[in-house]
Amino acid sequence: MWYNPAMDVSILIAVALAVLAVVGVVFFARGRGLADAEARLARLAETTERLASGQAELAGQLKMAQSGLSERLDALTKRLGDGLMQQTQKTGETLTELQKRLAVIDEAQKNITDLSKQMVGLQDILSNKQLRGAFGQSRLEDLVRDALPPAAYDFEVTLANGKRVDCLVRLPKPPGPVAIDSKFPLEAYRALGGARDEAAKTQAARAFSGDLKNHIDDIATKYIVPNETADWALMFLPSEAVYAEVHANFPNVVEEAHRRRVAIVSPSTLMAALTTVRAILKDAQMKEQAERIQQEIERMLNDVRLLDDRVGNLQRHFEQTSRDVDQIATSARKIAKSGERIKEVHFEESPPAPGLPPS
User: Fold this and answer.
1) At residue 289, does pLDDT exceed 50?
2) Alpha-carbon torsion angle 192, 197, 198, 203, nearest 10
3) Torsion sign over Cα 320, 323, 327, 329
């Protein structure tokens, strides 16, 4: 229920008027003078009129206040409604974005699950020596295919000595084709990483070093063939960790590889080496094209010299023909002059010979 101050003011004015009337009657009853009573009644009427005027003014102000309050309440209600609508819209957008992120998280979780399965599968592959060799060869083939043109390499090539190499990169001589063989000494590396005491570490390091040296000896013996391949070869380690372990803690293995002319490479260093090979192949191709261009230029120069000789011969023929034409023209002029001289000859008529009839 709304509070109406105008009603309280009206009640107060009525009570005041009643009190004044009672006071007037009392004064009148006590016998005061009529003039005094009339004066007081006049003042009372004036006061009543002022109170009525104030009541009207107060009612107008109250009405204006109520109107302003209603407008403010309407504006406040509108702002609250707009704010709630905006908040609802933002909440909806936030929920939509949250749903999208949850979908991305679900997809990422699914990928992580798939990757975990793949890692389990990779561990299974690496635990089998034969499958591990196929895995290393597969990585080798992927790197070579990505770095070199198809005509620059072959896989599973049988050399003249009957040995089959994983990959043969066909470089021009020198140095000639380069053999690349994939090796994966995983058991020895795992034993080295799993060693707990110094004795176990020493034994694992000795086994790891011996395994690598055996691989180096196999590559140097089988895949470096005089007059067929280059005098050096590559041993591809498909693991960067194994490669780093070799170069960090086994300098004797690296020295042995250099001595046997076997370069140990990892996936990253092999890619760098293949980039260099690609540059060499490009230079060789450019050199071959340059030689072909030189040969064509030499042939063209020979044709130009032959053309010059033929032009000289033709020019000599033209000069001889010109001389012959001049001589023919000279003879023609002489014949013409002789004809003119013959035309100038006049024959006199002579008498006919005796015994002959006149012509």
Assistant:
1) yes
2) -40
3) positive
